[in-house]
Amino acid sequence: MPGVAEAGKQAPLAVRMQGVSKNYHIYDNPKDRLKQAIVPRMQRLFGARPARFYRDFWALRDIALDVRHGETLGVIGRNGSGKSTLLQILCGTLTPTEGDVDVRGRVGALLELGSGFNPEFTGRENVYLNGAVLGMTREQIDARFSDILAFADIGEFVEQPVKTYSSGMYVRLAFAVIAHCDADILVIDEALSVGDVFFAQKCMRFLRKFQENGTVVFVSHDAAAVRNLCDRAIWLEHGRMRMEGDAKAVTEAYHASAYGETVRVVSAPVRDSAADAASVARLGAAAVPNPIEVFRFDPGAGFGDGTATIRSVQLLDATTREALSFVQGGEDVTLRIEAEALDALDSPILGFLFKDRLGQVLFGENTWSTYRDRAVPIDAGARLSAEFDFRMPILPAGRYSLDVAVANGTVLEHRQAQWMHDAFVLESHASGVTTGLVGLPFPGIRLQSEE
Ligand SMILES: Nc1ncnc2c1ncn2[C@@H]1O[C@H](COP(=O)(O)OP(=O)(O)OP(=O)(O)O)[C@@H](O)[C@H]1O
């Protein structure tokens, strides 16, 4: 996990909270709020004991927390457990009722939608406003403005008031600003990762790079996300710290508790398309259907020296070789990648990485080891294709994407001709996978008593 080695026990503190509590006054009806503003004052005036027209509600209670520099801390808990309250206190947008908070470094936060930006101002004006709040000078923002814009990728909308933005555009711009403000500590609420898979993957790439040196506090409902991204985690329950420790141990305990209390319902798989029905027919009677929608190859720029370019990526039925728009987890498929050489290549390699929504690589392969002793050289203008036969794993519901690349050389020493991030997207609609990053089809499971 990035950051662990540097963090160690001795890394300096980035955040320290001691005895932090947050109390809200709850009024059962609006009149009570008015009464509270007037009556106790009058009572004090006449020397009477002031009455209370509210109930106390402790959103956070006695939280002690250290986050060390370079560490990624996960915050997990159910709705209303106090996660957002904790983050807002950490960012300084909310004052604790009790306790001390010591934050060392610049905090870039992606919290509530709507915080940080003025809805009447344009995107451009908000970048300057937000950048200034984050401690950047006007010159620094000028210098980074084009990078921020490129990251957000909202085009002409940057000149429009942000009140006209969709939530996806809003998050794009907000994330772009915090990604360029030289934050020491990033505070991210994963619930905000709205938007398309390409932007989510872009954010994850940024986050993983940031983790190499920076401190991250990451909030999610999703135990798997916390386990994948974080070194350590805390579990909040009814405003109190229920558990703190290694991310794996905390998320497992959280998971076990959630499972103890609820009956898991696997949502009904999508069955509305002939293509999907055909994929079920190919697989036979799968125990738990896992319909995975296959989106079209999306040619994008990527990076590389331009000596070759990816022309198409397709997922084919392993037997009929027809291009699939739906596949079932457990089915045999062929991934076909086609590239075109723009210069002659003496030892081309084609490959892919299959990633989950957090950018975590689930598996990948390339042609090098199979063709290491018999390279397939091609001339400029010629096409080259690679096919990878594999059994599609059973994928937990969510979005997945493939990075696809063409290179020239050997696995240890090669030049990237073109590497395309998220060239190909899949979406799993339902799955029976409850543990692990992926499931595998088990053709047989036996339980029997032995005499
Ligand atoms: N301004 C407020 N006035 C009264 N109660 C509040 C206020 N803000 C939050 N709360 C309450 O404090 C508790 C903790 O809220 P918080 O938003 O921190 O939880 P959360 O864990 O982030 O939940 P979610 O996952 O739904 O975002 C909730 O019960 C919420 O209703």
From TrEMBL:
Which Gene3D superfamilies does the protein's record reference?
abc- transporter (atp binding component) like domain, P-loop containing nucleotide triphosphate hydrolases
What domain of life is recorded for the organism? Bacteria
Q: Which PROSITE patterns does the record match to this protein? A: ABC_TRANSPORTER_2 (PS50893)
- UniProt domain ABC transporter: residue ranges: 40-263
Signal peptide segment:
none
Q: Which SMART domains match?
A: AAA
Record's Gene Ontology CC terms? membrane
Q: Which UniProt keywords apply?
A: ATP-binding, Nucleotide-binding, Transport
GO molecular function (one): ATP hydrolysis activity
Q: Which family does it belong to?
A: Belongs to the ABC transporter superfamily.
State the name under which the record lists this protein: Teichoic acid export ATP-binding protein TagH
